Amino acid sequence: MIVTLTLNPSLDRTIEIEELVRGDVIRATSGSIEPGGKGVNVSRALLANGVPSRALVTCGGDEGGQLIRLLRSERVDVCALPISGSTRSNITLAEPDGTVTKINEPGPELSATEFSAITDQVLTEAGAGGCVVVCGSIPPGLPTQEFLSLCERVVAAGDRLVVDTSGPALHAAATAGASLVKPNREELAQVVGRPLASFADVVDAAQELRSWGAGAVLASLGADGAVLVDAVGGHRRRGDRGTSTQFGRRRRRPPGRLPRRRWRGLHPRCPVRPGRGSRVGWAVTPPAERADRGRRLGCRRRESARQPDARPR
Fold first, then answer.
1. HSE (CB half, 13 Å, CA atoms) of 233?
2. pTM here?
3. Mind listing the pLDDT tens digit for each residue in 105-135?
4. β-bridge partners, 103
5. I need a labelling partner for 184 at 20 to 30 A (CA). Which of 38, 247, 297, 308 fits?
6. How far is CA 272 from CA 40, 263, 276, 302, in A?
7. Is-contact 137 167, C-beta < 8 A?
8. Counts of helices then strands in the chain (DSSP H, E)
9. Residue 28 CA: distances (Å) to CA of 32, 43, 122, 285
10. At what angle do helices 185-192 and 167-176 cross, to 10 degrees?
11. Neighbour tally for 234: CB within 10 Å
């Protein structure tokens, strides 16, 4: 059984406005509310791809109740974990030109009793030989030692542990022996304490996390793709924009040609495959954000159309 745990979920409200003017009264043109949180999005993505999972979500106050109702309306198998604090609300202000302003609350603190109950519930839901996916930010004030204890208990129970977080919590997950940790390049650089300027630097940093106890490290590199480092070695999936081995150097390819040639020799256990990430990402993208992406793409196309054709004839 795949169990996702979101310790600091959110109720994401997207408000579309004409222009953000400080100190003025602004009338919205439209708005929407979506469930938020990385662990929540993993369960939504799995559901969109026909893979069963159970989402364990902390919830408190009216916002927490609305969050659970939204997930159940999407047919997500959700287990509510009651807490005394109120679930946070995040606000996104979207303007027609594609400018997006985000305001994220820190979220409620968890008491030691609440976190202990959450840990017990995670172990119960996962069962022996299950998979626990812990994603997203850690609640403010939660001691790193408590998070480390959660990870250690999951691993000791024989469950696979996958963690996508940052900072001390990422270090704790690797130390506890997580099967897979998934930082991005900035989070990986932060946890090892040095800049990562090249692909070799990323692989070395991932190997350092493995030396702490992590089974595998999947580092996302933005436009440069992703790299999986495990016991076999490093396996790179380059970005869809045609980046070369060195970061920042891009090659052009004929339009419409899929970069499948880059997958030759990739280890079969690598979880990154062509197209999968894009489909899953779009499946869990809120409608307002999809519309915002469409507006930005339309703006770029209109700007390109207005540019004179400087190509030689």
1. 7
2. 0.75
3. 999 999 999 999 999 999 999 987 899 999 9
4. 91
5. 297
6. 20, 10, 7, 34
7. no
8. 9, 13
9. 11, 31, 40, 21
10. 80
11. 18
